[in-house]
Specification:
Layout: H1 12-22, H2 24-27, H3 35-53, H4 63-91, H5 93-98, H6 107-131, E1 137-139, E2 142-145, E3 148-151, H7 159-176, H8 180-211, H9 220-223, H10 226-257
Antiparallel strand pairs: 1-2, 2-3
Helix pairs in contact: 3-4, 6-8, 7-8, 7-10, 8-10
Length: 258
């Protein structure tokens, strides 16, 4: 609740509950019980929680909290196995695996992701300035153009909209695409696209501050405008999604006919 980089976590269980309801006919077509596997998985979750809560892990990196959340997910998965059996578990595996996104990124992993986004976004913004003929020089995460020097700081990494784009592509791939490599391709494209749209965002705000109003670097579009460029990213990837989805239709129709 107090970490903007992991603010998406609170929505994950809501989506994970909606998916089994949306796909209930296929998931719960054949149910049973699996006391052994379900009880064993739940027991493993309880043991993991006990280990994580004892404080034996290093405080740095928030590893203990991540393991505590993982232990809760294991208990939930064990309860699902216990109540509905292995066939339903396999049919609803995506929803259960989707819960893993509840695990907040540890500080070590989060810093690496943010640094990667900073570096990639700086590269794209630098190329964008060159493409429109704006003289630019780069020093690390600093970009100097005539009239202003900007820093692509951690706050400019666009980590939240990047995670949102990844989750959106993941759900779209699961709901509308059936071929494995096509699903993987759509999700994989969300990663470079996150960097590209953030580089466009940085270069656009800089150009607006130079030629329109310097306040664009401090205004609402800077601090709250991530959603605008998130929509731009969806528009960019939508033709690829439509091609992948339509190319799967003949296969689905053949399967249904047989």
């Amino acid at each position: 609740m107090h970490d903007d980089s992991n603010s998406y976590v609170i929505l994950i269980p809501v989506v994970a509950l909606f998916l089994p309801f949306f796909e209930r006919r296929s998931i719960f077509a054949t149910t049973g019980t699996s006391a052994g596997l379900g009880g064993g998985l739940a027991l493993a979750g309880l043991i993991l929680y006990w280990v994580a809560s004892r404080g034996s892990l290093p405080e740095e990196g928030s590893w203990h909290f991540s393991l505590e959340i993982l232990s809760v997910i294991l208990v939930w998965a064990g309860g699902f196995l216990l109540c509905y059996g292995t066939l339903a578990f396999r049919a609803g595996a995506f929803s259960l695996l989707f819960l893993l996104l509840m695990i907040p990124l540890s500080d070590v992993v989060l810093d690496w992701v943010i640094h990667t986004l900073q570096e990639g976004s700086t590269d794209i913004a630098y190329l964008a300035f060159q493409a429109v003929g704006i003289p630019v020089s780069r020093h690390g995460f600093l970009l100097s153009v005539p009239g202003v020097t900007i820093e692509v700081a951690k706050e400019c990494s666009s980590i939240r909209s990047s995670v949102a784009l990844f989750i959106t592509c993941l759900l779209a791939a699961h709901l509308y695409i059936r071929t494995g490599w096509k699903m993987f391709l759509l999700v994989l494209l969300s990663l470079p696209l996150s960097i590209i749209k953030n580089g466009i965002r940085i270069s656009t705000l800089t150009l607006l501050s130079i030629y329109v109003d310097p306040g664009f670097l401090r205004g609402n579009l800077h601090h709250e405008g991530g959603f605008v460029f998130f929509i731009l990213a969806l528009l960019i990837i939508s033709p690829v999604f439509l091609w992948l989805e339509r190319s799967d239709r003949p296969r689905r129709s053949v399967n249904s006919a047989t």
